[in-house]
Amino acid sequence: MMTTRADLLAARCRPRTAALDAGAAAQLQALLPDWTIDHGRLTRSFAFKNYHRTMAFVNALAYVSHTEDHHPEMTVTYNTCVVRYDTHSAHGLTDNDFICAAKADALYQQAAVPA
Ligand SMILES: C[C@H](O)[C@H](O)[C@H]1CNC2=NC(N)=NC(=O)C2=N1
Questions:
Q1: Closest ligand 1 atom, residue 15 Cα
Q2: Of 47, 39, 41, 31, whose CA–CA distance to 85 is shortest?
Q3: Pocket residues for ligand 1 (CB within 6 Å)?
Q4: Any idea where the domains of the chain sit in the sequence?
Q5: With contact defined as beta carbons under 8 Å apart, do 81 and 48 qualify?
Q6: Distance from the CA of 36 to the center of ligand 1, in angstroms?
Q7: pLDDT tens digits for 37-60?
Q8: Which terminus, N or C, of the chain has the lesser number of Cβ atoms within 10 Å?
């Protein structure tokens, strides 16, 4: 059972075919206050100082996506990256989406200079 942000950060994605029900998804979302559920997808917009920093984040998150085999949609502009997660194989949200969202937050917090 994942009840803290630290649980999400320590967890690894696993193949999932069953979506969480709305209550379970809301419980996990409460651990990630910067994320919303929009059109069934876990969504956050990240802001940066410039394109270089935006792309550094995009590449770092791509690496996490590779290691977790769980891939967000990323919409990139000069100074923003909107990240959207859902689980195609489950046709909805699974714990994998929340695990990766927590890891994206951690990458963003790791930036040497704040956005
Ligand atoms: C075989 C492999 O596990 C699947 O194609 C993975 C890859 N990345 C994925 N990413 C996302 N976001 N949802 C998935 O269901 C998914 N499935």
A1: 3
A2: 41
A3: 15, 69-71, 85, 87-89
A4: 35-89+102-115
A5: yes
A6: 21
A7: 999 999 999 999 999 999 999 999
A8: N
Low-confidence ranges of the chain (pLDDT < 70): 112-115
Number of Cβ within 10 Å of residue 65's Cβ equals 18
Q: Which atom of ligand 1 is nearest to the CA of 16?
A: 15
In the sheet with 80-85, reading across from the earlier edge strand, the strands are 36-38, 41-47, 80-85, 73-76
Do 35 and 44 contact (CB within 8 A), yes or no? yes
